[in-house]
Amino acid sequence: MRPQVFDRQLEQTISFREVKWEEDVERLHSWHQEEHVIPFWQQNMPLEQYKSHLKSLLADTHQTLWIGEIDGVPMSYWETYWCERDSIGSYYEVEKGDQGIHLLIGKQEYLGQGYALPMLRLLTEHVLNTNGTNRVIAEPDSRNDKMIYIFGKCGYESKGQLSLPDKEARLMICHQSVFQQRWERLLHDTNV
């Protein structure tokens, strides 16, 4: 099922589709070269190396790669993954069914436009509707105050710091009950 909603505040349609190799490899490589992305993703590699990297990500069955779109225009990259099968599971008390989310906004013109929260809300809802998932986790870079704020506003609670191989991160967990309570009115309003 493709997550999609018309957001009344933005007056635009937010949607997600799975990454398609031919359509997205050069786009994703370009986004990883953006100055606002490099410090947090560290994947600003040459195109041929990135192609190999993306092929391995697409072949990995513990995760799904998404393109986030506004009114059908690709503008962000997201990963959802099963924490038990991911290296993150070694760094916190993973529970059966936990899924995680990573994200980046591709081009600078989409930064600061109010897209991150409604997009995160939609994909979090989608993940929480997966059978067996009661928690969604995130581990944003500790330096990324903007994303820590957005995760918190969405309903993710800070659970401390993690020292990961590639970064110092803030562990944030969103429980289904907290998320539903925070967004109940929106989740039941079909015009959102």
What keyword list fits this structure?
single chain; 192 residues; alpha+beta; Aminopeptidase; eight-stranded mixed β-sheet; 8 strands; 30% strand; globular; antibiotic resistance; Acyl_CoA_acyltransferase
Describe this structure in words.
It is a single chain. By secondary structure, the chain is α+β, with helices and mostly antiparallel strands. It has a single domain, classed as Aminopeptidase. It contains 6 helices and 8 strands, in the order ββαααβββαβαββα. The chain has helices at 21-31, 38-41, 47-59, 116-128, 145-154, 176-188, and strands at residues 4-7, 12-18, 63-70, 73-82, 99-105, 135-138, 157-164, 167-175. An 8-stranded mixed beta sheet has the order 1-2-3-4-5-6-8-7, sandwiched between helices. The longest helix is centred in the N-terminal third of the chain and has 13 residues, at 47-59. It is globular and about 45 Å long. The two termini are 18 Å apart. The model has no long low-confidence stretch (mean pLDDT 94).
Task: Give me a quick take on this structure.
The chain is α+β, with helices and mostly antiparallel strands and 192 residues long.
Spatial separation of the terminal alpha carbons? 18 Å
Describe the sheet with the most strands: 8 strands, mixed
CATH topology: Aminopeptidase
* Total count of domains: 1
- Indicate the CATH architecture: 3-Layer(aba) Sandwich
Low-confidence stretches: none
Radius of gyration: 16 Å
Structural class: alpha+beta
Q: Determine and state the CATH class.
A: Alpha Beta
Annotated CATH homologous superfamily = Gcn5-related N-acetyltransferase (GNAT)
Work out the helix count. 6
| Strand-residue proportion | 25-35%
| Shape field | globular
Q: Identify the strand order in the major beta sheet.
A: 1-2-3-4-5-6-8-7
Report the mean per-residue pLDDT as an integer. 94
| E-strand count | 8
Order of helix and strand elements from N to C terminus: EEHHHEEEHEHEEH
Which bin fits the share of residues in helices? 25-40%
Keywords: Acyltransferase, Antibiotic resistance, Transferase
Function: Acyltransferase required for the direct transfer of medium- to long-chain fatty acyl moieties from a carrier protein (MbtL) on to the epsilon-amino group of lysine residue in the mycobactin core.
GO molecular function, one term: acyltransferase activity
Protein name: Lysine N-acyltransferase MbtK
